[in-house]
Amino acid sequence: MTTLADLAELVRAPAALSVPGDVIAGAAAAGALSPRTPALAGASVLLYWAGMAANDWADRRLDAEERPERPIPSGRVSPAAAVGLAAGLTAAGVGLAAAVGGRRAAALAVPLAATIWGYDLLAKNTAAGPAVMAACRGLDVLLGASGGRMTRALPAAATVAAHTWTVTALSRREVTGADATLPMRTLAGTALVAASAAVAAPRRVGVLPAVLAGWYAARYGAAQAEVVRDPSAGRVRAAVGAGITGLPALQGALTARGGAGLLGVAVAAAAPLGRRLARKVSPT
User: Which of 24, 69, 135, 248 has CA 20 to 30 A from 212's CA?
Assistant: First the structure.
């Protein structure tokens, strides 16, 4: 019998803490923070969970060989239930975004949902996989900006997308391990991502974006440096987990750069909480 704990593992529930910050950072950058922002963040979480369920459904045969403990191959969640949950969460996410954000939000939520499914069903195991996943996160940031001047949110969207590329590139080596060149490339990317969130911050927002970006870089960068030293599968998984749970610190930096300093700190606070929850339910 499927339990809530099984479903939480299927959708990597704790990893959803890395999602609302996309929308908040986008809204802050576009001058669009409003009472509807939390609802758009909720829509984003629903779409993220849909993607996780669809991912496991698409990978169910591969997981039966490489990760038999996952909910579907272990028999705790049926394939039909997983794909049904993914479809339902997708409809709910798009519907919520359209209900609270109107046509502009729907015009981003629909391609975001399509890109998520496209990654899971088509692009994941191709050379385009990291770029497609990066596009998902970039669109997520722009969803938050849909109520304001979206062009102002493009740098934040590109920054989050670049981070996502590094995490996705590493995640493709979670089972087999990596050669040392891959974490060296992603580590260089992380340094550029952190710099874009910190150095480019307007003077009026002070040093907070740089502090939060430094926190992000230190945590995620240290995990990648360990992969350079020991590119085993276990180290790669740890780095991927650090990239997922450390993303709120980057989002917090971007939010603060948009002029919402206290909100940026609140977004960044999800990082340590996500690490604690990840000890109970794996985010990868």
Answer: 135
Note whether 30 and 148 are within 8 A (CB): yes
Q: Can you point out the beta strands (E) in the chain?
A: none
Question: Within 10 A of 172 (CB to CB), how many other CB atoms are there?
Answer: 16
Please say if the pLDDT value at position 87 is more than 70: yes
* pLDDT over 90 percentage in the chain: 84
Task: Tell me how far apart the alpha carbons of residues 236 and 227 are, in angstroms, rounded to a whole number.
Answer: 6
Q: State yes or no: pLDDT of 274 exceeds 80.
A: no
User: How far apart are the C-alpha atoms of 263 and 269, rounded to whole Å?
Assistant: 10
Angstrom distance (rounded) from CA 188 to CA 128: 20
CA 198 – CA 21 distance, rounded (Å): 17
Helices 20-30 and 154-171: crossing angle in degrees, nearest 10, is 160
The token duo for 35 is 């009472």
pLDDT score recorded for residue 275? 80
Query: How many C-beta atoms lie closer than 10 Å to residue 256's C-beta?
Result: 30
* Residues written for the chain: 284
Instruction: Please tell me the distance from the alpha carbon of residue 194 to that of residue 227, in angstroms, as a whole number.
Output: 19
Q: Tell me the whole-structure pTM to 2 decimals.
A: 0.93
Q: How is residue 275 written in tokens?
A: 């690490």
Whole-angstrom Cα distance, residue 174 to residue 259?
37
Mean pLDDT for 200-212 is 76
Residue 60: pLDDT band by 50, 70, 90 thresholds? very high
Instruction: List Cα–Cα distances, 280 to 13, 129, 245, in angstroms.
Output: 10, 28, 13
Write out the DSSP string of 92-117: HHHHHHHHHHHHHHHHHHHHHHHHHH
Token pair for 79: 């394939």
d(CA 159, CA 154): 9
Contacts of 76 (CB under 8 A, 6+ apart): 2, 3, 6
